C-alpha cells in the first residue's frame, strides 16, 4: 500500500444527491475540496421506462439547484411538475386537496428521477478544478485533531483537511466513527417502489391514499406514467414484490380505488426499509453531518432529500460567511451556527412528519374519526391549508439564501 498524502480545505464523504450538491455549492468559493464516493457514479438512465427511485423536489430545493447551476441540466433530461396534491383516507371520508394556484405558484414541486439529479450534479462538477471527485474508494478511519482532521482511505491515501462533511447516508459510518449517537426507531415498514402506466392521465397531480397498512402514492412521471411508493409492513411488501404482474396490477388497482383507471403496464419492483432518526449532534470540531446521515425520515411527505438540500444551503452560507471573515471553517464556533440553524428549522418538521405517520397509521376508531374530520376541516380552512402547502414546499422558516434563490455574496 502506498501512502500518498494530500491536503485540502474540505472533504465531503458520500457523493449521493446531498453530498454532490454540497460539492457544487462549495465549488465557487475559494476552497479546495474532495468529494469521496464509495461506488461508481452510474448516471445512465434506463433505455426504456424510468428509474425506480424518484424524489418530489420542493420549490426551495429547485431554487438551490438554480443557484448552483444544475437546474438547466435537470430540466434538459426529464422532470414532471405537479400542480395539485390529492390525499384521502381509506378508512373514512376524509379528503384534502392542494392546488398550487391557491398560493399563486405555477406548481407545488417536481417529481424527478434521482439519477437525473445525480447526473446533472456530476456534469456541473466537471467544470471546477478546485473540486476533486474520487470514486470507488472509502474511508477506513478518521482522526480529528485541534488544527486539522485526517482521513485514511481504503487505497492507502491519507487526506488532511480543515473540515469533514459526512453525507454518507442513513447508515453513516462516519457518524459512527465520530461517536455521534442518534434518536429514532424502525417503523417496521418498507416502501415498495415501481412505476406504472395507467389508463387515464395523472392530471399533473400527486395522489396519496392512506390505507390502514400505510400510505400509497402515485406520483406523476412523463406521459401517462406514475411512480409508485407503497409503504406497508415488510412481510406484506415482500409478498407484493413476489406477485406475478397480473396479480400485482389487480392488488394495486384495488388499493388505489382505480382512481386512474386500469394499470396498463408496470416496471420492475424493489423495496426499501423505512425508519426515523435524528442525530443528537449535527457537528463536532472539524466535522459536520448533512442529509440522511443527520436525519432519516419516512417518505410519506416527500421531505428527506429536501431536508438534506436545506442542510447544504445552510452549511454553504455558514462556511461562506466564515471565509469572508477569515475564520477557520472547521472550528466548532463556526459549525455551531449551522447546527443551531438546522436544528431549529428541521426538528419541528421531523417531529410533525413522524406524528403524522403515526396518526395516519392508527386504527383506533376515535383517531380514525379525528383524522377524517381534521382532513375535511383543513380542506375548508384556506389559511391553514395554504400554510401547510408553504411548509411542504420549503417556503417557510428562516430559509438560507440559496434556498430563497439569492446569491451568497
Ligand atoms: C422509497 C423512498 C422514497 C423517497 N422519496 C422521497 C421524495 O419524494 N422526496 C424526498 O425529499 N426524499 C425522498 N426520499 C428520501 C431520499 O431518497 C433521501 O433522503 C436521500 O436519498 C438522501 O440523500 P443522501 O445523499 O443524504 O444519502 P444517500 O442517497 O444514501 O447517499 C449516500 C452516498 O454516500 C455513499 N457512501 C456511503 N458510505 C460511504 C463511505 N464510507 N465512503 C464514501 N461514500 C459512501 C453512498 O454510496 C451514497 O452514494 C425517499 C426515500 C425512499 C426510501
Count of individual helical segments: 11
CATH level 1 class label of the largest domain: Alpha Beta
Sheet of most strands: 9 strands, mixed
Please name the CATH architecture of the largest domain: 3-Layer(bba) Sandwich
Q: What is CATH's topology name of the largest domain?
A: FAD/NAD(P)-binding domain
Radius of gyration: 22 Å
Fourth CATH level, the homologous superfamily of the largest domain? FAD/NAD(P)-binding domain
| Ends distance | 44 Å
Poorly predicted residue ranges: none
- Helix- and strand-based class? alpha+beta
- Give the strand content: 25-35%
Mean pLDDT: 90
Molecules bound to protein: flavin-adenine dinucleotide
DSSP, total strands: 20
Instruction: Summarize the amount of helix as a percent range.
Output: 25-40%
Morphology call: globular
**Total individual domains:** 2
Outline:
By secondary structure, this protein is an alpha+beta fold. It is 34% helix and 29% strand.
Description of the structure:
With 409 residues, the chain is of the alpha+beta class. It folds into two domains: 5-81 and 105-184 and 275-404, FAD/NAD(P)-binding domain (3-Layer(bba) Sandwich), CATH 3.50.50; 188-274, D-Amino Acid Oxidase, subunit A, domain 2 (D-Amino Acid Oxidase, Chain A, domain 2). It contains eleven helices and 20 strands. The protein has helices spanning 17-27, 59-67, 71-77, 114-125, 173-177, 234-242, 245-255, 304-324, 332-361, 365-379, 382-392, and strands at residues 5-13, 33-36, 54-57, 80-82, 84-89, 95-99, 109-113, 131-134, 139-144, 149-153, 158-166, 182-198, 205-211, 214-220, 225-232, 263-266, 270-279, 283-284, 287-289, 295-296. Strands 5, 6, 12, 13, 14, 15, 16, 17 and 20 form a nine-stranded mixed β-sheet that branches. Strands 1, 2, 8, 9, 10, 11, 18 and 19 form an eight-stranded mixed β-sheet that branches. A three-stranded antiparallel β-sheet has the order 3-7-4. Bound molecules: flavin-adenine dinucleotide. Residues 13-19, 36-39, 55-56, 138-139, 167-169, 173, 191, 193, 229, 272, 291-292, 299, 302-306, 308 line the site of flavin-adenine dinucleotide.
